[in-house]
């Protein structure tokens, strides 16, 4: 530095506040790691149980000398009626806890306010989840810029804002169940129904949550999305115009995980049996295995689990199927899964609990993914060139399916038209034959081989987007620069 020249500005400090659900924490932790690796300081604010789960990430960051911290605000609040460990959507026991959980989260506003006020200097920017509008108050009262992170695809986000701007949600509410509605203002035709409305928090009892989230969206300084320009350019352009604010497309964020340590420990520090899973995959032929997993939240009752198991068996394909601990809790389910594994020995593996999904999707043996269309799962699959069988369950997943199947051409639908309840749905809307048929269509050599080719092309583009000179890499550079303040602007 030349004598007399001013010192370089301090690195910007980003405070990131994900919704406490794996599908929201995982991408924002990836973003925090990227920010820290690119010279900024990053703090992820969550709850104690999630801080504990993220211990491995914190330790990796400390070893690498990255300025990345995790803060746990006390939760659940006294009087919420929630058990002490109910600190993540995957710990919600049943449907009756779902609304109390979301309403209890609003009470994090007080502790978050106190935490932000305790920071000196003030953070440069707060990036908080679309579903966490309780972060807006302290940001506006202290004049801290705030961006909202929206978890779903930009296609979904644009449908949502178009639906709101054109009064579509009210129209849908007043219409019959079977009516189909065209979402206005979309660059491609998109139709929705009452069962698949274009919005989050569209369930009875969530009206207040939705109003608060929309208000915080309107008052934010911009949006951060986990997508990339070569995947969703036309929707990004439309979203930025509709929002009237900058939209930062920074994904696929999962591609920041480059070593085995980080690909196998996302979401949970200790993943049981990960070596055995990877060793099993090593024995399979390239592109032969179908990975089957429905994200971190949806839970199925035995009837639907058995149908899936039969579908996998009947398909004749190799499969790696993730069944959640709570789904496999009953002895009759455990026994049934054991018997299935015995019948399909050599070509079928059932993971009970949590899988190292990113490591699985990046393994050369995996050629297809039966997914519930959570946006992280879809994007992780695309980023590794793996086409999908789409089986949406609820929320944004139906519109993510439309993007994957109709627009991108990287998916084959299993054929569901309406949502299931989030937990313990009694119905079994998907039959074994549908599962086997969709798997064959995806993995066979017929016309659908197109999906595999297109997925590979998008996988290449995804990698380029995250490399130096790529669209997401350069967008992150601009984001960091725009929140780097000079000394004279310091608080
Ligand atoms: N995931 C994982 N192992 C599992 C299940 C899920 O690592 O056994 C990760 C997955 O890679 C993704 C996230 O959890 O990053 C799930 O997010 P998604 O948006 O796909 O679905 P959600 O859980 O929000 O329904």
UniProtKB/TrEMBL annotation:
EC identifiers of the protein: 2.4.1.-
Family matches, as InterPro entries: Glyco_transf_N (IPR058980), UDP_glucos_trans (IPR002213), UDP_glycos_trans_CS (IPR035595)
GO molecular function: UDP-glucosyltransferase activity
Domain Glycosyltransferase N-terminal residues, every copy: 15-253
Extent of Basic and acidic residues compositional bias: 449-467
Glycosyltransferase listed as a keyword: yes
Keyword annotations: Glycosyltransferase, Transferase
N-terminal signal peptide: none
This protein's name: Glycosyltransferase
Gene source species: Setaria italica
Lineage: Eukaryota, Viridiplantae, Streptophyta, Embryophyta, Tracheophyta
């Amino acid at each position: 530095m030349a004598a007399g020249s001013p010192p370089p500005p301090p690195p910007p400090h980003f405070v990131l506040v994900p919704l406490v659900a794996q599908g929201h924490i995982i991408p924002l932790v990836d973003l925090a790691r990227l920010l820290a690796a690119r010279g900024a300081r990053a703090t992820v604010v969550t709850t104690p149980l999630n801080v504990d789960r993220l211990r491995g990430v914190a330790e990796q960051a400390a070893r690498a000398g990255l300025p990345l911290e995790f803060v746990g605000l006390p939760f659940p609040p006294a009087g919420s009626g929630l058990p002490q460990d109910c600190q993540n959507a995957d710990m919600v026991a049943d449907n009756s806890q779902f609304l109390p959980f979301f309403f209890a989260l609003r009470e994090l506003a007080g502790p978050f306010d106190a935490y932000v006020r305790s920071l000196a200097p003030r953070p440069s920017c707060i990036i908080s989840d679309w579903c966490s509008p309780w972060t807006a108050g302290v940001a506006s009262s202290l004049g801290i810029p705030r961006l909202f992170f929206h978890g779903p695809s930009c296609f979904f986000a644009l449908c949502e804002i178009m639906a709101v701007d054109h009064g579509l949600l009210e129209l849908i509410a007043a219409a019959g169940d079977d009516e189909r509605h065209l979402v206005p203002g979309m660059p491609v035709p998109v139709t929705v129904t009452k069962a698949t409305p274009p919005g989050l928090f569209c369930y009875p009892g969530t009206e207040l949550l939705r109003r608060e989230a929309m208000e915080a969206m309107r008052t934010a300084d911009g949006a951060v999305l986990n997508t990339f320009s070569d995947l969703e350019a036309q929707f990004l352009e439309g979203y930025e115009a509709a929002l009237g604010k900058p939209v930062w497309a920074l994904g696929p964020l999962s591609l920041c995980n480059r070593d085995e340590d980080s690909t196998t420990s996302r979401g949970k520090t200790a993943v049981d049996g990960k070596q055995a899973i990877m060793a099993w995959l090593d024995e399979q032929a390239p592109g032969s295995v179908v990975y089957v997993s429905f994200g971190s939240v949806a839970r199925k009752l035995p009837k639907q689990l058995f149908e899936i198991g039969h579908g996998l068996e009947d398909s004749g394909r190799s499969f790696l199927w993730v069944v959640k601990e709570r789904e496999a809790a009953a002895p009759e389910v455990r026994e049934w899964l054991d018997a299935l594994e015995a019948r399909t020995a050599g070509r079928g593996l059932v993971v009970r609990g949590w899988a190292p999904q990113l490591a699985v999707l990046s393994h050369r043996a995996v050629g297809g993914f039966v997914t519930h269309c959570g946006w992280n799962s879809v994007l992780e699959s695309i980023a590794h060139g793996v086409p999908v069988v789409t089986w949406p369950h609820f929320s944004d997943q139906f519109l993510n399916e439309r993007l994957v199947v109709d627009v991108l051409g990287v998916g084959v639908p299993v054929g569901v038209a309406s949502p299931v309840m989030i937990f313990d749905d009694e119905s079994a809307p998907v039959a074994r034959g549908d599962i086997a048929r969709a798997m064959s269509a995806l993995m066979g050599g017929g016309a659908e081989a197109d999906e595999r080719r297109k997925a590979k092309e998008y996988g290449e583009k995804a990698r380029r987007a995250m490399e130096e000179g790529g669209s997401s890499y350069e967008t992150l550079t601009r984001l960091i620069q725009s929140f780097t303040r000079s000394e004279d602007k310091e608080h």
